[in-house]
Amino acid sequence: MAKSKDTKPRNDELMNYLFRPAKNIERKMLCEAMNRLSVISDVKHYQYVGFGSVYFADFTLFHKQLGIQKLISIECEEDMETRVRFNQPYSCIDVMPGWSYEMLPEVDWGSSKSILWLDYTETLKGYMFKDMATFFQRALSGSMFIISVNVDLRDTQPSNKTTTQKIVFKLGKDIDVRKRIRSSSIKKEMTKNDYYSIIRSVIDNEVKEIITERNKLESKERFEYKQLFNFLYQDGQAMLTVGGVLFSENDKEKIERMNFKNLEFIVPDEKYFEIKVPHLTYREIHAIDKHLPNFNNDAEAREKALKELKGVVSDDAIHKYAKIYRYYPNYTEANL
Known about the structure:
An 8-stranded mixed sheet has the order 3-2-1-4-5-7-6-8, sandwiched between helices. Helix 6 crosses helix 9 (192-217). Helix content is 39%, strand content 16%. By secondary structure, it is α/β, with parallel strands linked by helices. The longest helix is centred in the middle third of the chain and has 26 residues, at 192-217. Residues 3-7 have low confidence and may be disordered.
């Protein structure tokens, strides 16, 4: 887990990571995309680096579904190390106590392809660029990069400011972020979408600049980056997840064969994929399921479903569910 050195409660103390429905869906979508990396190299031989916290939700999923045997969890808080190690679900997970910008340079990036998920709980900050640089300067072709940052504006002080004023305030808090924002991005009137777009652009531009510098030093390979993810979701705080794959010119054809574009949640630009989780009963879910997947690609089937469920489930809820139904979480109570 990565956060700044302050006295605020950890996110895992405020919310159980295992019961965040939008995050649950995002995790499953990422896992499906990761599986396609096997075109370039068997994904079970990749290493996964992330912030496991005490729940290790992503670690458990990626180990079980992808077969990854080498997993590294970075834990920034010394007083949490004992609890984190106690909750470590598998022996193949290596816990590295320390801050991400200290520990990531210690990771062996040259022995295997990697999947790195910088799942921050904070807004975009300067030290995160150091973490990005460590990965893009060292990772092998075929490696995947993911970064999640907080883009919530509701905690911006003072709260009575306009959306534009809140955005300007947020963007101006960190000097390293501020100097990376292009002046053309700042408009007289801005919306939340403008804010999300600016944050994505800062990350995307930083990645490309790091790769450009790497290519100047590389004599054997030239690298490129392909954005795959641009998720927006909210399990309390609004979060933005951006990511993609790093590859060399020699592997470009293999990247194309992965056919990421036929996954409905793949986004190569600034138009984010929003994960909205409607609140439905099990009976309502089963009723909608009977019309899927035809609902998503057949106008007649869609009209029939909306007509049958009229007065039971809103059209908006049906559309939201149909967009994510394959990843929709199912919770049940059990004594384990």
